[in-house]
Amino acid sequence: MNLSQQNQFSSKVSQLLSWGHWFTFANIGLVLFISLSYLFADSPPTSFIGYVYMLVTWLSHTSFITFIAFVLTIFPLSLIFPYPRHIRGMAAIIATFGVSLLTLDAYVYFNLGYHLSSSALPEIISLLWHRLTSSPALTTLLAGGIVLLILAFQLLASNYTWHHLARLKQYKFARYAISILLVCFALSHSIHIWADANLKFDITKQDNVLPLSYPTTAKSLLAKNDLLDIESYKEAHNVKLSPQNVDYLAPSPLSRCEQFTPAKIDILLFSNDQALNRFVSSQPNLRTTDLFLQPIATEDTLFNLVYGLPAFYKTSVMAQQQQPVWFSEQRSMRVLGFDDFAYINNNENLETAISIINADNKLYTPHQNTTVFAFKLSTESKGIVTTSRLYSSDKRITQVDGLIQPSDLIATSVGQYLNCSAIAKQTILGTNLYNRKDDTGVNYSQNVFIAYKKDRITLIDSDGNYKNISAAQGFAIEQGLDIPFLVQSIKKLKQFTP
Prior knowledge:
Oligomer: single chain
C-alpha cells in the first residue's frame, strides 16, 4: 500500500516536472519576443561581431533567466504540492506576474535608460503617473489588455502542454533547441571575455541592456588615452580626468556650406526670474521644456553656447582668443553683454545670423521671422549641472524627447536654421535637435566629466569619484559605472584634441 502511494506520488511529480519544462519552453518564446524591445532601445552595434554577440546574448541570457525563474518557483512547488490542476493554475499566475514585470521593465528601460530599481522608484512612478494622467482611459486599457493577454497565453500554454505531454515528449526539436541555447550561452561569454580584453566597446557597451545582466570581465579595462585610467574593474573603477595641458585642434579642412540659408536666431540669457518672466509674458507664442541641462558655472554655459563645445577646451581656446570654427562672414554671430567674450568679432548688422544676448536690462522685442531661445542662467552655488526651463519659439525644439544642452542650441542653429549641417557636425559637439538619433550627450564643467543617457546623468570628478543622478528629479541612482558608455563618451569629448 505504501509502495503504491509512493509510486503514484513519484509519477505525479515526474509528470509535473516534465510538463514544467515544456511550460517553461513556451515562456522562453514569449520572453524572447518581449525582450526584443531592449535591443531597439539603444543604438545598434556597428560591427558584424557586435550583431552576433547581441543575438547570442539575447537568446542565451533571456532563456537562462526564464529557466532560473522556473527553478526558483514552479519546480519546488511541484515537489511540495504535486497536484496538477492547482500547480498549473499557480504556475500561470506566477508566470503572468513575472512576464508583466519584465514588460514594465522593458517600458521603463526604453524611456529612461535604466532598469527597475528601488533607487529609481520616484522617477519610475513619475513616468507611469504622467502616462496615466495624460490618457487615463487608453493607458488603463492598454495595461490591462497586456496583462490579460499574458494571462491568456499562460493558461493556454499550461493546458496545452499538459494535455499533449505524451506527444510533446516524442519531439526531438527541444533537444536541439537546448543545445543551441547552451552553445549561445558559452559563445556569448567567450565573446565578451575577448572583447573586454581587447577593448571592443561595440560589444561591451551591451553589458547593461538586458535585465539582470552583469559583465563578465577577463581583466581590468585599460583606457587607450591619458584621460581615462581604469586600474581595477573589480575594486574602485577609478576614472581620472584631467584638463591639464589640453590643446584644441580645430578640424581641417573645413566642410563647405553649399546650401546656406539666411536666418536670424536670438538666444536670450537672464540671470533672474523677474526679467525672464517679464519677457515670457510679452511673448505668448513661446513654448517650454523643463529638461534644459546646463552647467551651474555661468562661464561654462556661455562657452557651450558660443563655441558649441564643452568647457574642457575653454582654457586653451579663450587664452588664444580663438574665434569659433563655425564662424564666418555668412555664419555671423554677435555676443552682447558678456565681457569675457568681448574679443568675438561681433557683427553689428541687424541681419546677423546668431545673437547671444544678456537680456537682463534690455527691452527686447524679437524681429519678424526670428527664432528665439530664452532661459535663466543658474544662480545655484553648489553642484555641477542643473535642469531648468527653456523657452523657444520653435515648437519642435520643445517637443524633443530627452535633455537639451546649450551646445545643442548652436548645433541646431548652424545645422538646421542656417542649413550648414556638415559644418555643425564637424565643428560642434552638440546635437542638431532636428536630427537627434539617441538621447545621449557629454559635457565638462568644474573639472567634472558629465555624460548623460536618457534620464541618467553620470558625473566623474578629477579624483575618480562618480555618481549617477536622475536628470528630471535629481536623486541619486544606485547603479555601477557604465564603463563602455563612459569610454565612448570620453572619446567624443576628446574629439578635438591633437
